[in-house]
Design a protein that fits this description.
With 493 residues, the protein is α+β, with helices and mostly antiparallel strands. It has 16 helices and 20 strands.
Length: 493
């Protein structure tokens, strides 16, 4: 028996449910006084182990999501974390008083049942009820079962309802947990040490982003929610922890879109004595291994596009990618003035102060990114947009950096890490100049990090992966909000 809820009877339904609760409380049967219920099995265990459990008594608990009343008997479906299972309740099994009480239960109520496992004439694994108890009363009606909760804004705001009525949403977040576990397992097997670094930072660093600001009353100083764990993790490399990673939340005071949420999950790792080529190899192996372990395949279908994660992946320089898709060879452009002229021809947002490297990066963003569907490493970024990266010995305008793109989205970012403290300080000063000129996303000076580098950091490769975007790929989710349990939402007035 499904519950179809029209706007005009919603208030009446709410009144009826509250009255039912009041009546139970007056009868000394308040469901909210129950503090514990002993379960022997979940729905999944019963279904998977039916041959062992057939005819045996089990105890399960879950939420009523559907029922069919047939006079003195009833079939009912309950939902637990594993899924749903049917139970069959008859008046002559539980007694007239308990059966009448059960008839007053509502869709959404949480019950505990004891009974014997059997299979119906139609072949459905079920439980023949001997005892039933109301464990919690639902005062709000669930959405009508055939249509579910389709309003995306309401789904994100009331994820608890979304998880109840949309089984595919439950599966997405179960898979998210498995993906995170698989990433950790892979890195642990490679000898990486998982660490935790501060979320409250005196200086936000490691990325170009606008931070969130808070204030510590006792110290009377402003602090920033971290935009990246990078600079702390590299301090650990200086300290002799040669392979480290951290997976957790970072916070960036930026817009909200299908690809962006102000707080999101990132995984950053650093390994001594390797470079960005080593990071490319590691990225290929990590992502393909996690896909194989969690999905059973490296061939992914994302929003109708087939993506192959099996190595090797395409590797192409930013200069060659711009030449391929925009028809301009930046290797032939020798000055900033010439680059600005060419940038205007490409209809880029060129400023009077724009440099060769900045315009190359703009040309890439405008003309190349949208074409990168299969996994592609874009390598050798301009130094102007890579303040923490080693320069290429063969061309000091460029750095040993790559970003990984697939489905026209950036998925990862990696460097041969800059370990020259003098060069690093100079680049920080350039970032400070940009910040003073109005760029709120430019890096601040971090003297302690420069001091750490002066103690000598070995040659190091570093990698950052956008965990949420990777999960979007592996769960075929269109929006980042579909893989965040509680995405940031503007409060309703």
């Amino acid at each position: 028996m499904s519950e179809i809820i029209e706007t005009q009877d919603l208030n009446e339904i709410l009144k009826i449910r509250r009255q039912k609760l009041s009546d139970l409380q007056k009868e000394g049967k308040d469901p909210f006084v129950n503090v514990k219920y002993e379960r022997t099995n979940t729905s999944g265990q019963i279904i998977n182990d039916f041959k062992k459990l057939e005819g045996k008594q089990v105890s399960v608990a879950g939420r009523i999501i559907a029922r069919r009343m047939m006079g003195k008997a009833s079939f009912c479906n309950i939902l637990d974390q594993d899924g749903k299972i049917q139970f069959y309740i008859k008046i002559d099994q539980v007694g007239e008083e308990k059966y009448e009480e059960y008839k007053k239960y509502d869709i959404g109520d949480i019950v505990g049942i004891k009974g014997d496992v059997f299979k119906t004439h139609t072949g459905e694994i079920s439980i023949k009820v001997k005892e039933i108890i109301l464990l919690s009363k639902s005062l709000q009606p669930l959405p009508e079962k055939w249509h579910g909760l389709k309003d995306t804004d309401l789904r994100y705001r009331q994820r608890y309802v979304d998880l109840i009525v949309n089984t595919d949403v439950r599966e997405t977040f179960i898979r998210r947990s498995k993906i995170l576990k698989a990433i950790r397992s892979f890195l642990d097997s490679k000898g990486f040490l998982e660490v935790e670094t501060p979320i409250l930072n005196v200086i936000p660093g490691g990325a170009a982003a606008r931070p969130f600001v808070t204030h510590h009353n006792t110290l009377d100083i402003d602090l920033y929610l971290r935009i990246s764990p990078e600079l702390y993790l590299k301090r650990l490399i200086v300290g002799g922890l040669e392979k480290v990673y951290e997976m957790g939340r970072v916070f960036r005071n930026e817009g909200i879109s299908i690809k962006h949420n102000p707080e999101f999950s990132i995984m950053e790792l650093y390994e001594a004595y390797t470079d960005y080529h080593g990071m490319m190899n590691l990225t290929e192996e990590l992502m393909s291994t996690v896909a194989k372990e969690t999905l059973g395949t490296t061939t992914i279908n994302y929003q109708g596009q087939e993506v192959e994660l099996a190595a090797p992946w395409t590797r192409i320089t930013m200069v060659d990618a711009v030449k391929k898709y925009a028809g301009v060879d930046f290797n032939e452009i020798k000055s900033d003035d010439e680059a600005r002229k060419k940038g205007k021809e490409l209809k880029l947002d060129v400023k009077d102060t724009s440099t060769w490297g900045e315009i190359l990066n703009l040309a890439f963003e405008e003309h190349v990114e949208k074409n990168l569907i299969q996994p592609t490493f874009i390598i050798d970024y301009p130094v102007e947009v890579s303040p923490l990266t080693k320069r290429k010995p063969s061309d000091p305008r460029l750095t040993e950096r790559f970003e990984l793109f697939m489905t026209a989205r950036e998925m990862a970012n990696a460097y041969s890490e800059l370990n020259d403290p003098i060069d690093q300080k100079g680049r920080f000063l350039k970032q400070v100049e940009a910040r003073d000129a109005g760029d709120e996303e430019a890096n601040m000076m971090d003297d302690d990090f420069v001091n750490a580098l002066e103690y000598a950091m070995p040659p190091t490769g570093g990698l950052g992966i956008g965990i949420d975007r990777f999960i979007m790929l592996l769960t075929d989710s269109y929006s980042i909000r579909d893989v965040l349990l509680f995405p940031t939402m503007k409060p309703r007035e």
